[in-house]
Amino acid sequence: MAKQVVPEGERRRRRPTKQGAVLSEDLIVETALRMLREHGGDGLSVRRLGAALGADPSTLYRYFRGIDDLTLAIGDALIGRAMEGWGATGDWREDLRGLGLRIHAAYLAHPQAAVLTASRVTGRAHEIAADETVLGVLREAGFSDAETVRIYHAFIDQSLAFAALDAASLALPAASRRADEEVWGATYARLPAETHPHIAATAPLLVARMNDSAYPTALEMLLDSAAARLAVSGGGQT
Fold first, then answer.
1. Contact assessment for residue 144 and residue 87, using Cβ atoms and an 8 Å cutoff
2. Among 88, 132, 144, 227, which is least packed by CB within 10 angstroms?
3. What is the pLDDT of residues 198-226, one digit of tens each?
4. CATH fold of the domain at 8-65
5. In sequence order, which ranges of 84-144 are alpha helices (DSSP H)?
6. Phi and psi (nearest 5°) for 124?
7. What is the DSSP letter of 227?
8. From start to end of the chain, where are the E strands?
9. In angstroms, rounded to a whole number, what is the distance separating the alpha carbons of residues 198 and 119?
10. pLDDT tens across 37-96, in order?
């Protein structure tokens, strides 16, 4: 059974931890991000987190119901970081492009956390604010509500899917990641045209591109498609 979280006004630790810090949700999330970066997903537990914070592990249940609840808070924190400093330009394509690239970059800055959280729906404040922002950009551009939701769905899922894919690669051990990257030059570039004509014809381009994220290209394709639909509907600026 999940433990009951103490109401926010009652749950602040009155005494500093052994490290001299007063516990808060933000401090716990920051410490969890550091643990994920250093030890991966398997290294995150209430016991280890308590030790890292210099607090009794049971104290963490005053802030989170358990590791899954903390995982949702970590995901929401990554979205919050993506939104920091963002401002609308009035150009819907530029605004969506900027938001998408910010989301992707925020997750890739914490690849181990991204692998855990990119597929989750948190229902927390930063996620809700980001969703409201994207929906607002689309509706104010002139898309119908049905088209707004359709494009929003594709935009969010595309952003998070690429974040998860690219983060999973970054989270690999360095030797494994290098080995994967070398396959394009060591294997694909050496396939003969007699047996693999299309790979052979495009091999230099494959070697040049395939170790980079395809997210910027996919994002532009999505925006092109949305702009074309807006033009057909006679909506706002394209």
1. no
2. 132
3. 999 999 999 999 999 999 999 999 999 99
4. Arc Repressor Mutant, subunit A (1.10.10)
5. 92-108, 111-117, 125-141
6. -95, 175
7. H
8. none
9. 35
10. 988 888 788 999 999 999 999 989 999 999 999 999 999 999 999 999 999 999 999 999
Whole-angstrom distance between the N-terminal and C-terminal Cα of the chain?
A: 52
Q: Which CATH architecture has domain 88-233?
A: Orthogonal Bundle (1.10)
Amino acid identity for residue 19 in this structure: Q
- Residues comprising the chain, all counted: 238
Only one residue has tokens 């045209």, namely 193
Token pair for 236: 């706002």
Structural tokens at position 202:
């495009």
Which residue ranges make up each domain of the chain? 8-65, 88-233
Tokens for 60, please give them: 């963490």
Number of H helices, E strands in the chain: 10, 0
Secondary structure (3-state) at 12? coil
Q: Return the number of other C-beta atoms located less than 10 Å from residue 145's C-beta.
A: 10
pTM (two decimals): 0.85
The helix-helix angle for 125-141 and 67-83 (nearest 10°) equals 40
